[in-house]
């Protein structure tokens, strides 16, 4: 019967491990360089290490063969393949089997088996007919209780109680007695045990096992299938210890039922594995009990592994424990992405990116409280631009918020690729290495040599790791593949500098790890499951990260960037030094084969690349008020085809819908269609409103070169002309300087047109419009992976706008104009305060019992500073121009200014 467990999703999220995103998959957060699944006994695959599911699931079900199918295949003389046998036992229809019995088979497989098949195996076929008839009913009936949290989709689902009990028992008993073949006889006994179990006749199920299964001295698949049902009945009788022991026997002797029997053991007895340990008699039972105890309590598995080693150093389950241990180390040593601490950024530079244990403790200490994380999670969840590349991405501080602070960045030091580690990790890897080293000497399985070599790799001893790998002699294809991968890792990771010769070596010997393969075309009829997380990180991705880190440290930022990003990604954080380095690589005439095929392929379509770079440089010159330089760049950007925005949608308040961005020739595209309102001033601060509502034009009649709509070249040219006019001493010069100041303010982080010079398509909220909180020139410390996750453009220089406003103020005699200018200067000065505030956060531990008191004191200190140093022009406006019409209008439209005027 189908059942659905009702759960509280929000509570489930709150009280599970918090990740950077609610949909994050922890098994995608590290590189799977050591393949756990190379263990030879694939029946233990579910017990390898992962976090996403209760059991390891990264394998094909066909890798764990069903011993019941294998038993049937042997019974039928191996004349069918495994898949054919599975089809006959589990999938063929009841009608087809009855047709075979009547001598008129229609099924292709049955025709292939021939007319003599039924005569030879009539007892087996008759059993399969009976089993196929019973199968739809072979489930336990659900009994709903008063406190049940289950919802049943249908009341008509079949279960064992819907069969006539007496008739079914009688028929199975009769078939049992009539059968001559012991294995078939035992299979009928299994059906008797199962039917009694599922009808909740638990005593009868126990008796049926004793009467019909046990006397037949066979311990193949049917026996353990029946033992599994016996244990279930014993659990129903509250015989926990007996049930657990029998489930343990199933676990030991079955291939396909290990996972289910493990779960059953957990359900049967709260002290399950300890009780099994007490009862274990043989070395095999003890070894398995140690495995279960170590698997269940994985805090430090080595003591249990030592006990297992003493029993059997060749044990397959000992390899499972080792694989799990190595995987746990991998997760701590090789995360897929590193987040930098803002506090540590001030002390680290590009040549020394070591993160010390003290710094790591400081990062952890500064974590926000649980509820602060929840608030920020929902803030980020519902923020951002729909369908934009940065959609749903938190800003830098929020990205860091949910990351594990114990994960330490990779870096190169003393010509060695290095993973920092805390003392616990170091102790564990040392202990595991000692254990692996001694086991490889005693075990005949090459697995332990591979494991030892991998641990040497994690400990940066690449030469020793390579020597061990070179000495391994094996024909196991999975082992050979792992050895090959590890040899590549040792070679590349130990390389201190990536130069042209080494890039040639990469393409000659390791091209398969870097050259992307054509995707395999799938049959249109093939059903595939949707992967919400994407493919798991690969060895190739890890190697690309290594190279990206190398290039970064070598000062080749452009190559480092293009290892992980597309050229078009520059639009999201167009900081000048990186753009320049990417352009240098683009223009490099003598690119190596590696650079051409691996790096340059990420120079994706941005229209005209030269125009793309020129537009970025022109924007930077505009932000620096170097209008002549901007003009020269914009002349080279005439072929700019628009800011690349795939699937970008913006909200239309008139329709209430999100509409896909289409450059129709009339809207701003990154170069064209800039309205002359950019020279005006805002009448109220509303980025969501249209510019006609938020902005007001000034009088441009004296400046005919200011067109209603302009491209960037025309805008730069207008500013060049205004700057020349502004060198005069008259009212026109005053107005020219004021208009320049307006453009500088309106295109700053605080202005309505803040998108114009940062490669954006509109002013909607996003990471580009955050006040960057560090003094570093570049927040990327290790490489440029996940470039769009981190916000960075050079901060605005508000003094540029203020200086032009000062010239205008000094040149004009018009008090109304002076009042307007002072208000604009005060607005720009507010931006300077925001920048200061962002760099001087309180950083008070939220767990501090005096947090509120200290936070209030810090805020008071900042408020005093703001009034003393960053209210210059507000104060002047209040003291000297409060009686102007402009001041009165501003008081009516700006609540903050009105509050300031009334203080």
UniProtKB/TrEMBL annotation:
Q: Which domain of life is it from?
A: Bacteria
Give the protein's recorded name: Gliding motility protein
Q: Which organism is it from?
A: Chryseobacterium zhengzhouense
